[in-house]
Amino acid sequence: MDIASGIASIQLALDLSKGIKASKDLMNNGEVNLQIIELMEALVDAKGGLVEAKNQIVDKDKLIMELQKKLKVSSNIFDKDNSPFVWMKNKEEKDIAYCSKCYAKDGILAKVMNDRPMQNLGTHQCPVCESWFGKKKDPQSELDKAFGDVFGK
Ligand SMILES: [Zn+2]
Q: Which residue(s) pair with 111 in the sheet?
């Protein structure tokens, strides 16, 4: 018997006991009347317990689904030498870089971006935790290098 059927059975027993309690012959018997009230209280408690158990199972099913999702991700994540990112292949088998901080903290896969070169705080930024990765460019050494390329040194 599953929990929903258990709840339905208890509800039926509760309805039956209400019917018995409504019987005039039994109402005149104080002892029987008291026992029926106790029976109804016990059935209400049992029904409440089953409803609570059902809700706990629903919550646990949700948790299991989340964990299965994370497990699938973690089995596909890999590191690359000297890379500050975690990597996973996309559908086209291309390696995609994700923020290692967000992954370590919350298991989140946040794709790092390199679309803000003017800010010069690193090469890549995480859109979620806003951490920067990679080396900043040194404008002076870039200039020196460009001069060296043009004029020789
Ligand atoms: Zn991040």
A: 98
pLDDT tens digit at each of 153 positions of the chain: 788 888 899 999 999 888 888 888 777 888 888 888 899 999 999 999 999 999 999 999 999 999 998 888 888 999 998 899 999 999 999 999 999 999 999 888 999 998 776 677 888 999 999 999 987 777 777 788 888 888 875
The Å distance, Cα 128 to ligand 1 centre, comes to 5
Helix 30-74 / helix 3-22 crossing angle, nearest 10 deg: 170
Is the CB of residue 124 less than 8 Å from the CB of residue 92? Answer: no
CA 143–ligand 1 middle distance (angstroms): 31
- Ligand 1 centre to CA of 145 (Å) is 32
Measured in Å, residue 138 CA sits from the centre of ligand 1 at 24
The span from the CA of 31 to the CA of 37, in Å, is 10
Q: Sketch the domain layout of the chain as residue ranges.
A: 3-74, 85-151
Residues near 85 by beta carbon (within 8 Å), at least 6 away in sequence: 97, 98, 99, 100, 112, 124, 133
This prediction's pTM: 0.54
